[in-house]
Design goal:
heterodimer; A: 716 residues; alpha+beta; 13-stranded antiparallel sheet; 6-stranded mixed sheet; 25% strand; globular; disordered N terminus; B: 507 residues; 18 helices; disordered C terminus
C-alpha cells in the first residue's frame, strides 16, 4: 500500500558531492554598456560565477550496541536542539490480507496508546509542556519512532523515547480512536479527485490483490484487535532490527554512553525479518475511468511500472523523464500548459524506489472538455521521445538543472544523516549519490533515446482518468482503447452471523415455532399470499419531524411495491432488481438503495416468521429468547421474543448506508391485532444508531385480496 | 497575526530560546534601503554554500480592482514570462505583434459593448482575427526562458504565490550564483513583458478549476469568505472569480503593476551563504534603475458591522466539513497576540482543547483546528474553526460540541499550566525558523513589510508571553459571539428519488 516513506528517508532523485565549476558560455550578442544605468539591459549570459565553495560533508559516527541496535551520531552545534529517529524494518507490506491497516494502526497507537507507566494523555502533556515531541509511524516499507527536544531536556525526552519504543501499552481507547480515524479516511477517500487518480493508478499498476496495490477497508480495519497490534509490534520492534540516528547539539562520546546505558535492559530477540514481498509485473494495462460528477477538470495519471534507483539506466531515465515533463522547460509543460493553455498542473517523472519497482507517471489535470485532446497530445509527446533523439540543448538543460541543484542534497546535516540511514537500510553503497552524479554527467542523447525505447511501453500504459464523462465532448474510447469503468464504491462492512452448532440450530427452530404459535400458527402465516398495508410514519423532530404516509403492497414470494406520499417516491422490487420513481426522475434500484429494499423484503413479517421453511435461511438461537436469522446473501436479523407470550417484540438489524459502516436499527413491536388469523403489530418504534428515529402506526391492512403483479409494476 | 504562522499542530520541534538570541541573531543581519525605497534584509548563514531569496510585494488579491478580481494573481504569472531581452527571439517584431493583439481586442470589446445591438457576425470575425493575432505573436516567443535560466543554474524551490494580502516570489540558488538572482529579479520588475497573456488566462482558469471547482475544501473556503464579508474585498477568491478572469486584459495587468509594484512597496530578503557587502553592491548595481514611484492608495472599504449570524450551505456529494468563523480585528490590533494564544490553546498538538474534546474523547471529529488569522491580516479578518465530522456523526453534532466548548472556555479562565505550555511552544517555534534559509527569508521579509521591523520575528514572542488568562477570557467573550459568526458547511444535496425516507423495513 503506497504510503509516504518513513520520516527523513529522502528519495534521492538528485544529489552529489562537490560540483565542478560551471561558468556561463561566452556571450555572442554585442555587449551592452558596462553600467546598467545606460540603455542596454544586462544579460545573464554575460555573468561569470566563481567556483562553488566546497561543502564539508560531516562525519557520522557509527556503532553497534551490545543488543544489536545500530547507532549513528552526528554533531550539529548551530542550534540547541536534539533530534533522533529509530528506523525499524517493517511496513504495511507485511499486513495480512484480512487485516489491511494493521501496520498503520500499530504505528499510530505505539505513541497514542501510552506506555506501561504513562497514558498517551500524560505523555502529551509532559512533552508539549517542554515543546518536545516523540512520534511513531509505520509506512509502506519502513517504520519509525522519532523525537525532537531542546538540548536541556535531552535526558527527559530520551527517557520518554525509550519507553515509547520499548514498552508501548496499546490502551483500548486509543485503538478505538485509531479505528475512528482510519475509517474516516476510508469514508473520505473519494472526495479529492487527484487523490483518487493517484490511488487508482498505483493500485492498478501494482495489482489490487497485492500488498503494494491493496487498500484498507472498513472490514479489514474493524477486525484488528489489541492482540494483533501487540503481536505486530513484538515481531518487528527489536534491537537488531533497528537503526537509531541522533543528531544535533550533542557530544558523540557522551551521547553514545547515554544511549548504551538507556537501552542496556532492552535485549529482546526475534528471528530476522523476512524480505519485503516482491512487486509483480504490470497486471492490468488499459484505460480506466472513475466517474466523479462534482469536478470541472479531469484528473489523470498515465504510466507504467518503473524501476529502482540502482538500475544501470536510472540516470538516463531521470533525464528522459525530465525532458519529457520535469519542469517549465519540459515538452509536456510547454505544449499542454504554455501552448495549449489546457492545464495548470502537468508533469512526468521516473519515480524509482530503493528495493522495488517504482513507476513512470505522467499526471495532471485539464478541463473536462479538453480531456481527449490533452491525452492525444500526451501520446504524441511520448511517441516523439521514443522515436528521435532529444536536442543537445534539451540534454544540456536537463543535466545542468540536475547537477547544479545537487548542492541542495547536502545543505543540512540532517540530510546527510538521513541519507546514510537510508542507504544502510536498503543496502546501498555509502557513495551511491556520488556515483549517481557521475552517471548523470555521462548521459548522452543516444542514451536518452535508447532508454525511452527500451523502458517505455505506451501500448501497455495504464491510463486512469477521474472526471465527468458527460462533459468530455469526445468520448474517451475515441482514442482507440476500450475504457474500463472503475467502481469507486467503498465496500460496506458486512456484519457476520454468529456460528451455530446442532444444539443452537435446534433451539432456534423451536424458538421460531414458538413465535409462529404466538401469532396464530404457521398455517395462517403461510396462507397469507398478498397484502396491502398503509402506515403513518412520524419521524422524530431531531431527525426532521416529517409525517410520511406510506402504502406497501406485497405478493408472495418476493414482489414488493412501496409508495410514499410525501416526499413522493415509489419503489418496486422483485427480490433481485427493481426501480424507483419520483417526480424529479426515476432509475433502476442499485447500490445502497437496492440493498435497503432487499433488506426490507428479507425482514417482511410474513416471511421472517416462516424462515425455517425458506431455502437458504439459517435460524440460530442466541439465547433463550433470541433467534438470529440469516441467509446465504448475507442478510441478518435478530428477533427477540417476549418471555411470557412468545410474541416477537423486538427486531435488530443493520441498514446499509451510502458511506460509512452500516448503521444498527432496532424496531419494537407492540399493539398486536389479529388479521386473517395472524397477529400483526400495529405500532412500531424505530431507533437508529441508539437514538429514537420514528414511530410507525399501521392504518390499514388487507390480506389476500388477489392483487396482481401488473398493479405492482405499474409506474406512477 | 498572519505573519506569525504558528503551526496548528506543533508536534515537532523542541527548542529553547536563550534570552540573548535576538542580540546574537542581529549580528548576522544587515539592512539597507535604496534611494528608490526598495528595502533589503540580508542574513548570513554560512553552514552550506546555498542562498535563499524572498521578494515580498505588499499587494495582493485584496487590492484587485472591482471587476478585475484575479489581476494580482495574473500578474504573478506574468512575472515569469520574461522581459524585453529574456523570452523573446525578436523584441521589436514581438512588440508590434503584441500591440496588434490589443488593437484587435479593443475593437472586439467595442463591438461587444454595444450589448443587444452588437453584430454577432462581426464579433465572430473579430474573435477569429484575435486568435490569429495571438498565434502570430507566439512565433516570437522563446518559451519559458526566464524559468529555464533559473532552473539550469540550480534554482531550487522556484515558486511564487498570491494571497489576499501579498504577492511573493522565492527560490534558492547555489551561493556562487547569487548575482544571477540580482539580475533576473531586477529585470523582471524593470522590463516585464506581458507575453502569452491570453493563453496564460486559460492556465489561470485551469488553476481555479483545480483549486476550487474540483475541490470540496476549496469550495467551502470560497463560500465562507464570500458569505462572511459583504463589502470588503476579503470576500473575493485570490484567483479571482471566473467571469472576471476570462475578461482580464493586458492593460489591466500593466496598470496593476504600475500602481502596486513600486519599490517602496517591496521588501527583499536574502539568507544564507552571502557576503552583505557584495549583496549591497549588487543591489545598488541592478536595482537602482527601478524608478521611485508613490505608494499606492490605501483601501478604504470597511466591512460594515455584521447584522447577525450567517450560514452558508455548499452542496457537495462528499463527506461533510464545516467552517465556523468569527469576525476579529486586523493584525495591528493590540489584541492580535491574544488571538494567537487562543489558537494555540485550542488547537495546538494533542493537548489542544478542540482535539482533546472532539477528536480524542468524543470521537465525533477527525479534524478540529483553529486558525487565528484568516485569510489575510492587513484588514479586519476572521478567527476560523475547521471541523470534519467522523463517520456517522454530523455537522450539527460538531457545531454543538464546539459551542459547548467555547461556552466553557469563556466561562473559566485558562490555568497557569496551559499558558506556560503555550509560551514554551512559541519560544520553540522561533528557533525552528532559524535553521531554514528559505523560511527565514520569508519571515524576515514578511515581518518587515507588515510591521516595519524584522525584529518582530523575535519580539512577537515577547508579545505572546505577555498575554494573561484575563486577556484570553476577555477576548474570547468579546469576539466569539453569535452575531459575529458565519458558518459554512458541505452537505450532500437532497436525495433525488431515494426510496423510503425511513430506514429499515416494516412487517
Amino acid at each position: 500500500m503506497k504510503k509516504t516513506l518513513v520520516t527523513l528517508l529522502i528519495a534521492a532523485a538528485s544529489a552529489a558531492a562537490q560540483l565542478p565549476p560551471v561558468s556561463a558560455p561566452p556571450h555572442k550578442r554585442a555587449a551592452g554598456a558596462a553600467r546598467p544605468a545606460a540603455a542596454a539591459a544586462p544579460s545573464y549570459q554575460d555573468l561569470k560565477f566563481p567556483p562553488l565553495r566546497p561543502i564539508q560533508i560531516p562525519k557520522v559516527a557509527a556503532f553497534t550496541l551490545p543488543n544489536g541496535m545500530k547507532l549513528y551520531l552526528l554533531e550539529d552545534h548551530e542550534l540547541p536542539i536534539i533530534h533522533g529517529v529509530a528506523q525499524v524494518r517493517t511496513g504495511n507490506l507485511f499486513d495480512p490480507a484480512d487485516k489491511i491497516g494493521l501496520a498503520t494502526m500499530t504505528g499510530m497507537v505505539i505513541r497514542t496508546g501510552g506506555t506501561r507507566t504513562k497514558t498517551g494523555e500524560q505523555l502529551d502533556e509532559q512533552l508539549e509542556n517542554i515543546a518536545a515531541s516523540v512520534e511513531s509511524d509505520i509506512g509502506e516499507s519502513g517504520g519509525s519512532v522519532s523525537f525532537s527536544a531542546l538540548k536541556e531536556n535531552t535526558d527527559e525526552v530520551l527517557g520518554v523515547f525509550k519507553d515509547v519504543l520499548t514498552a508501548p501499552e496499546f490502551r483500548p481507547d486509543k485503538i478505538t480512536l485509531a479505528k475512528t480515524q482510519l475509517n474516516g479516511g476510508i469514508a473520505r477517500r473519494n472526495d479529492d479527485a487527484r487523490g483518487v487518480a493517484e490511488r487508482e493508478f498505483a493500485d492498478i499498476v501494482y495489482g489490487k490483490d497485492t500488498p503494494y496495490g491493496w487498500d484498507m477497508e472498513y472490514a479489514t480495519v474493524n477486525r484488528i484487535t489489541r492482540a494483533d497490534l501487540q503481536d505486530f509490534y513484538k515481531r518487528y520492534f527489536f534491537p537488531a532490527n533497528i537503526e537509531l540516528g541522533v543528531w544535533g547539539d550533542l557530544d558523540t562520546a557522551g551521547m553514545k554512553a547515554k544511549i548504551e546505558k538507556l537501552f542496556s535492559d532492552w535485549a529482546v530477540e526475534q528471528p530476522p525479518v523476512p524480505e519485503f514481498p516482491k512487486a509483480g509485473g504490470q497486471t492490468a494495462p488499459g484505460t480506466y475511468l472513475a466517474v466523479k460528477k462534482d469536478v470541472t477538470q479531469t484528473f489523470f495519471s498515465i504510466g507504467q511500472l518503473g524501476g529502482e534507483f540502482k538500475d544501470k539506466d536510472y540516470p538516463a531515465l531521470v533525464i528522459m523523464a525530465d525532458i519529457l515533463g520535469g519542469g517549465f522547460r519540459s515538452r509536456l509543460v510547454e505544449r499542454v500548459r504554455t501552448k495549449m493553455g489546457n492545464a495548470y498542473d502537468i508533469g512526468a517523472g521516473w519515480d524509482a524506489n530503493y528495493d522495488h519497482p517504482g513507476w513512470f507517471e505522467i499526471s495532471g489535470g485539464t478541463k473536462s472538455l479538453s480531456t481527449v485532446e490533452t491525452f492525444q497530445a500526451i501520446q504524441e509527446e511520448v511517441d516523439r521521445i521514443r522515436t528521435s533523439e532529444v536536442t543537445e540543448e534539451e540534454l544540456k538543460t536537463a543535466k545542468d538543472t540536475a547537477l547544479n541543484s545537487l548542492v541542495f542534497a547536502y545543505d543540512t546535516r540532517a540530510k546527510t544523516l538521513a541519507r546514510m540511514l537510508t542507504y544502510e537500510y536498503y543496502g546501498y553503497p555509502p557513495d551511491f549519490i556520488e556515483q549517481y552524479q557521475k552517471a548523470l554527467e555521462a548521459v548522452t542523447r543516444a542514451d536518452v533515446l535508447r532508454v525511452a525505447k527500451e523502458h517505455l511501453n505506451p501500448a501497455a500504459f495504464t491510463t486512469v482518468a477521474v472526471g465527468n464523462p458527460d462533459d468530455f465532448g469526445r468520448p474517451l474510447d475515441s482514442l482507440g482503447a476500450p475504457v474500463h469503468m472503475i467502481d469507486l464504491t467503498i465496500p460496506q462492512e458486512t456484519p457476520e452471523a454468529a456460528k451455530g452448532d446442532a444444539a443452537s440450530l435446534e433451539k432456534g427452530k423451536r424458538l421460531l415455532a414458538r413465535a409462529q404459535q404466538a401469532v396464530g400458527g404457521a398455517g395462517p402465516l403461510a396462507a397469507v399470499k398478498d397484502y396491502i398495508r398503509s402506515y403513518d410514519l412520524q419521524v422524530e423532530p431531531s431527525a426532521g419531524g416529517m409525517l410520511m404516509k406510506e402504502t406497501d403492497r406485497w405478493i408472495a414470494p418476493t414482489y414488493f411495491r412501496q409508495d410514499i406520499a410525501l416526499p413522493k417516491i415509489s419503489v418496486f422490487c422483485d427480490g433481485k432488481a427493481g426501480w424507483f420513481a419520483t417526480p424529479q426522475g426515476s432509475g433502476p434500484l442499485a447500490g445502497v438503495q437496492l440493498k435497503q429494499v432487499q433488506g426490507d423484503l428479507f425482514r417482511l413479517y410474513f416471511r421472517l416468521l416462516l424462515s425455517d421453511r425458506i431455502a437458504g435461511r439459517t435460524v440460530n438461537a442466541l439465547d433463550d429468547n433470541t433467534v438470529e436469522i440469516s441467509d446465504t446473501g448475507g442478510a441478518i436479523a435478530r428477533l427477540e421474543l417476549n418471555a411470557e407470550t412468545g410474541l416477537p417484540q423486538r427486531l435488530l438489524y443493520e441498514v446499509a448506508r451510502a458511506s460509512g459502516p452500516p448503521i444498527p436499527n432496532e424496531e419494537v413491536w407492540a399493539d398486536f391485532q389479529e388479521i386473517a388469523g395472524v397477529k400483526v403489530p400495529r405500532k412500531i418504534t424505530i431507533a437508529q444508531g441508539g437514538r429514537k428515529f420514528a414511530e410507525v402506526k399501521l392504518t390499514g391492512c388487507k390480506v389476500n385480496s388477489g392483487i396482481q403483479l401488473q398493479e405492482l409494476q405499474k409506474r406512477p | 497575526m498572519r505573519a506569525l504562522r504558528l503551526c496548528a499542530i506543533l508536534l515537532t520541534a523542541a527548542i529553547c530560546l536563550p534570552s540573548q538570541d535576538l542580540k546574537e541573531f542581529e549580528k548576522k543581519v544587515t539592512e539597507f534601503t535604496l534611494a528608490n525605497g526598495l528595502h533589503f534584509i540580508v542574513a548570513e548563514r554560512h553552514e552550506a554554500p546555498v542562498v535563499s531569496f524572498h521578494t515580498y510585494v505588499n499587494a495582493g488579491s485584496v487590492d484587485d480592482p472591482s471587476g478585475e478580481t484575479g489581476i494580482a494573481h495574473m500578474f504573478e504569472h506574468m512575472a515569469f514570462k520574461g522581459t524585453e531581452t529574456i523570452g523573446t527571439v525578436d523584441w521589436p517584431s514581438e512588440k508590434k505583434a503584441l500591440d496588434a493583439i490589443e488593437e484587435v481586442y479593443d475593437r472586439l470589446d467595442a463591438e461587444r459593448n454595444k450589448g443587444p445591438k452588437a453584430d454577432t457576425t462581426r464579433i465572430g470575425v473579430l474573435q477569429a482575427q484575435l486568435q490569429m493575432a495571438i498565434d502570430s505573436a507566439e512565433a516570437y516567443v522563446e518559451p519559458n526562458e526566464y524559468l529555464r535560466v533559473i532552473e539550469t543554474n540550480g534554482g531550487s524551490g522556484v515558486n511564487a504565490g498570491t494571497s489576499l494580502d501579498s504577492t511573493e516570489y522565492y527560490y534558492s540558488l547555489p551561493s556562487n550564483r547569487i548575482e544571477l538572482w540580482f539580475l533576473m529579479e531586477s529585470q523582471r520588475f524593470l522590463h516585464p513583458v506581458f507575453r502569452e497573456f491570453y493563453k496564460e488566462r486559460d492556465v489561470v482558469l485551469e488553476e481555479y478549476r483545480m483549486r476550487v471547482e474540483s475541490d470540496p475544501e476549496g469550495k467551502l473556503t470560497q463560500d465562507l469568505l464570500a458569505t462572511a464579508f459583504a463589502a470588503h474585498p476579503y470576500r473575493n477568491p485570490s484567483g479571482g472569480w471566473p467571469s472576471d478572469i476570462v475578461n482580464l486584459r493586458r492593460a489591466d495587468a500593466k496598470a496593476f503593476f504600475d500602481e502596486y509594484y513600486v519599490p517602496a512597496n517591496i521588501t527583499m530578503a536574502i539568507v544564507g551563504d552571502v557576503n552583505p557587502a557584495d549583496a549591497k553592491r549588487m543591489a545598488e548595481r541592478y536595482f537602482t534603475p527601478l524608478p521611485a514611484r508613490p505608494l499606492p492608495p490605501l483601501l478604504h472599504t470597511v466591512e460594515p458591522p455584521q447584522p447577525g449570524p450567517k450560514t452558508a450551505v455548499v452542496d457537495s456529494p462528499t463527506q461533510p466539513m464545516v467552517a465556523i468563523a468569527y469576525k476579529r480585528p486586523d493584525q495591528y490590533s493590540k489584541d492580535d497576540p491574544v488571538f494567537d494564544v487562543i489558537s494555540l490553546i485550542l488547537s495546538s498538538g494533542r493537548t489542544g482543547l478542540l482535539y482533546k474534546d472532539l477528536v480524542q474523547e468524543k470521537k465525533i471529529a477527525l479534524v478540529a483546528q483553529a486558525s487565528a488569522t484568516f485569510a489575510g491580516g492587513r484588514y479586519p479578518n476572521l478567527f476560523v474553526f475547521f471541523l470534519a465530522p467522523s463517520v456517522g456523526h454530523t455537522v450539527d453534532e460538531d457545531l454543538k460540541a464546539l459551542d459547548d466548548l467555547l461556552g466553557r472556555f469563556k466561562a473559566r479562565k485558562v490555568d497557569a499550566e496551559t499558558l506556560a505550555r503555550v509560551r514554551s511552544k512559541a519560544r520553540a517555534e522561533v528557533i525552528r525558523r532559524l535553521d531554514n534559509n528559505a523560511g527565514l527569508a520569508e519571515m524576515l521579509a514578511t515581518y518587515y513589510a507588515s510591521y516595519g521591523d524584522w525584529r518582530k520575528l523575535f519580539t512577537s514572542i515577547d508579545d505572546l508571553n505577555r498575554v494573561t488568562a484575563d486577556d484570553v477570557q476577555r477576548v474570547a467573550r468579546q469576539y466569539f459571539v453569535l452575531p459575529s459568526r458565519t458558518v459554512a458547511y458541505l452537505a450532500q444535496p437532497g436525495p433525488v428519488g431515494t426510496p423510503a425516507g425511513a430506514p429499515g423495513g416494516r412487517p
